[in-house]
Amino acid sequence: MRTDGRKASELREISIVYERLDRVDGSARFGFGETKSLASVSGPIEVRANLELPSQATLDIHIRPLASISGTDSKALSATLKGILSPALLLSHHPRTLVQIVGQALCGTDSGSGMGSVGRGWSANLIASLVNASSAALISASSVPMRGIVCAVAVGRLPSESALKLVLDPSEAEMPRLSGGGCFAFLFSVVLSSASSSTQEVPPCSLLWTNYTTNTPFDEAELKRARELAEGGAREVWKILKESISTMDASHASTIQKTRAEPEAMEEVPSHAEDSDDAKMEI
């Protein structure tokens, strides 16, 4: 049993909220328990001449820590996320434009979760949260053609006397005890080869990126087990992302309904006020 009572292959509670921030095409907040992040998508929009690409859209990603300004580690993470998300986007459909993604950490601890240069880097579970928040924001925007959906989870390695113990989605309390771990990002798409494991509910997936490391010599069998554990967790994330689309549409419909109702209510007030003034003038 883990410190929070979860099984080794069990994720923390996942939360997805489509924020609908102003001046962006899509935005979403994603969290594994207390590990949360926010992402927004703008584009395709006009791009500066020095960043313009003649054959595809320019993908620009910025990551902001919870505290202080973005440092070298935040910029390195931005480059990593660009490499993770690029295979999922059909950037060639909008050449000479810009697609901009901004990620913001919504948590911060001494372990480095979102503290940027102030802490000790970025934790694997927060990187996974940022990847999933970016995917949710892209779904919310619906303005950038996508080849598939990228889902990510973290896997940690807990010291055990009997045997190696790998756990999915380590919590903040478990992180100081880890002797290894990393983030695994998978691309889910129907265009992938059916040779990869898939079910009727979930499309095939392929591993895009991982930074799994340990403080012991490399063990291929351990990495394989960690990947299998992460793939199962990523499938659960994909299912929850799919289910969240219905809530996004319902929220959007209620927003439109409220916006349309407000002008009608405003129109009734001047009409009533005019009648009152006329009545007073007659008296």
Structure notes:
- The chain has 283 residues and is of the alpha+beta class.
- It is 34% helix and 24% strand.
- The protein has a single domain (14-282), classed as GHMP Kinase, N-terminal domain (Ribosomal Protein S5, domain 2, 2-Layer Sandwich), CATH 3.30.230.
- The strands form two sheets. It has a five-stranded mixed β-sheet.
- Strand 4 (58-64), helix 1 and strand 5 (98-105) form a beta-alpha-beta unit.
- It is globular.
CATH class: Alpha Beta
Shape assignment: globular
Cross-sheet strand order for the largest sheet: 1-2-3-5-4
Count the beta strands: 10
Which regions have little confidence, pLDDT < 50, spanning 5+ residues?
253-283
Instruction: Calculate Rg over CA atoms.
Output: 23 Å
